């Protein structure tokens, strides 16, 4: 694994990378509460397949720059900026959670830079229909915006991070080491405030998400996630190119909960849509 810095979209990002520098590029965007290390096993798997896999710490997550804004349009522009700065586009883009939201935006903004879009856990934001069950499932969108949210999360050495992982992947006995990396990130002064500031932009559809996606897209959905597989299937109208839903057992962090199964299906997707 290599650690480096990257200048893109007016920000400095710290990146983790595996694979030969001249190999086809894959960029991976993480979500909350998580960081670039969530992709460590996936980057190594991609490198073994012959790709160059790069996972930056998203804006707001130390040691990348903490400054906003944190809306999906800005986050999508970051991903496009990564690809341009790395100079190996068009790239395969993989995004989880907020990284998925950013990846949909990047593909809409700059389809010329995205060879294949792969998302995990989050269907296209413009396709999500409000309901009482959804409101309960995503109640963190309210609690993380309340005054004092950062201080409440810090209690008990960030034990709320473990609570969120447990809630969102309910059938997984999450090992303590799974959340230690993001806890280190969020202990950095200002990083927790920046990370939860993403949620202040939730609830409105960004300009990028109003556009239909013009690149081939594959959406991975865990059968035990807080958003059901049916929500991913219902997103088909947001895509003008091919769109597939791949289901896996597991919850919101399916790529960590069942890495072998995820990598097997990811390999099949790449072989079909974007071979080395």
Can you describe this structure?
The protein is an alpha/beta fold and 276 residues long. The protein has a single domain, classed as Alpha/Beta hydrolase fold, catalytic domain (Rossmann fold), CATH 3.40.50.1820. 41% of the residues lie in helices and 18% in strands. It is built from 12 helices and 8 strands. It has helices at residues 40-49, 72-86, 98-109, 132-137, 140-143, 149-168, 176-187, 191-197, 207-210, 229-233, 254-257, 259-273; strands at residues 2-8, 11-18, 25-29, 52-56, 91-96, 114-120, 217-222, 243-248. It has an 8-stranded mixed β-sheet with strand order 1-2-4-3-5-6-7-8, with helices on both faces. Strand 7 (217-222), helix 10 (229-233) and strand 8 (243-248) form a beta-alpha-beta unit. Helix 2 crosses helix 3 and helix 6 runs antiparallel to helix 7. The two termini are 20 Å apart.
Keywords:
Rossmann fold; 276 residues; 41% helix; globular; alpha/beta
Could you give a quick summary of the protein structure above?
Helix content is 41%, strand content 18%. The protein contains twelve helices and eight strands.
Explain the layout of strands and helices:
Layout: E1 2-8, E2 11-18, E3 25-29, H1 40-49, E4 52-56, H2 72-86, E5 91-96, H3 98-109, E6 114-120, H4 132-137, H5 140-143, H6 149-168, H7 176-187, H8 191-197, H9 207-210, E7 217-222, H10 229-233, E8 243-248, H11 254-257, H12 259-273
Parallel strand pairs: 3-4, 3-5, 5-6, 6-7, 7-8
Antiparallel strand pairs: 1-2, 2-4
